[in-house]
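anyone seen this seq b4? input:
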Amino acid sequence: MSFTFRFWSIIFGPSEEWLLSRQVGCTLPPKKRVLKKNEWETWLQENWEDCKKLNISFQDLGDPYQVQNFNRILRRLIRVETLWLVDNSLIDLSAIRLPSCRVLNMSKNYLTSFKQLPNIPQIQHLSLAENHIETLDGLSRFRCTPLEILTLKRNPCEFHQNYRKQVFLCLPNLKILDGILKLPEDCSPPENIFSKLCILS
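predicted toks r here
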């Protein structure tokens, strides 16, 4: 078995997409994996630089040494193209650069801003569902990337007025937002509520 698929064995539950495709509700969260210090040492000896597809979701990163070693692994993923980091209690990966990453799933973490994401210049598909992102500040950093699919479902920013219009205005090359194709009404500029008030008065 090639290195590319060697670490898929650490998945501890079906993906959200798998569940949704079968209309099955996930009542019990997957059990998080707790790595001991000697296991981390083994992980760090792997040839992460040649990894192209990797799922290291559902990791229990409760101790500082776990977070430190986890970030050390991420910094070595210079060729990874598909990366899943679901439900890892991640807060800030802004110091991480993933130069080849095209698909990144960071759903169910503790992100509060787009500025906390890693540097992903080649990103095409980005999933940030179920985080704590309140505003669209910092989203423009992806304007010069090939991003086509973005998922922000179940973030506070989803409930802002003209949410979809603002996202597509910021990312004109985006094709799909929250699983819905770009619609004609998404292309029109957001209505200015202040101008409406002036007309009515």
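The helical segments are 16-21, 37-44, 64-75, 163-170, 184-187, 193-200. Residues 33 and 59 are 5 Å apart (CA to CA). kinda curious what u guys think
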